[in-house]
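Annotated sample (chain length 204).
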Amino acid sequence: MDTETTTWVDLIRHGEPEGGRRYRGHRDDPLSATGWAQMRAALGAEERWDAVLCSPLLRCRAFAEEVAREQGLPLHVEPQLKEIHFGDWEGFTPTELAQRDGERLAAFWADGERHPPPNGESLTEFHARVSGAWQHWTDRLSGQRVLLVGHSGMIRMILASVLDLAPARAMARLYIPYAGRSRVRLDDTEHGRLGCLLSHGLTP
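Output written by the structure step:
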């Protein structure tokens, strides 16, 4: 295969936020001390990128700002890369939500395209939002090495696009831990853009 341009993207989920595991969505909780340690441990001291891209939410943006500042890199903050909006579920722990709205929660995880969170975002809407931003930024940063700091759902939607998976399948089947890393290679060729997942879910 004659490759014209190759783009490398390291996707990393934010670390643990203050308050522990919750359906946060658009809530803007900062990283905990543990979360900061997870993120710093996840990146090797010798790793270098050409640009940093992130969600505007603090649990992603604060660490992205630190990396960009330390390496002297351009930082791009993209509102369309926020986590899925969980509507009425935002702020509840998994246990609390299973007790309060377990039937609808199970339906969402079975098929979030047909069963969105109450007053929240469907997976169809979420995937369209994230994949549009992914296309825009991988075009704009073509040929570069990019660090993207984001959310578990957001990364799942990107991998759904790269691997040609249904959004509901990617949401339910791809596990992404705190500070988990995935690497994607994009080759722009005469046959179009070819994406490949090189590694997934790596933690320190």
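Annotation: The radius of gyration is 17 Å.
Annotation: The mean pLDDT is 96.
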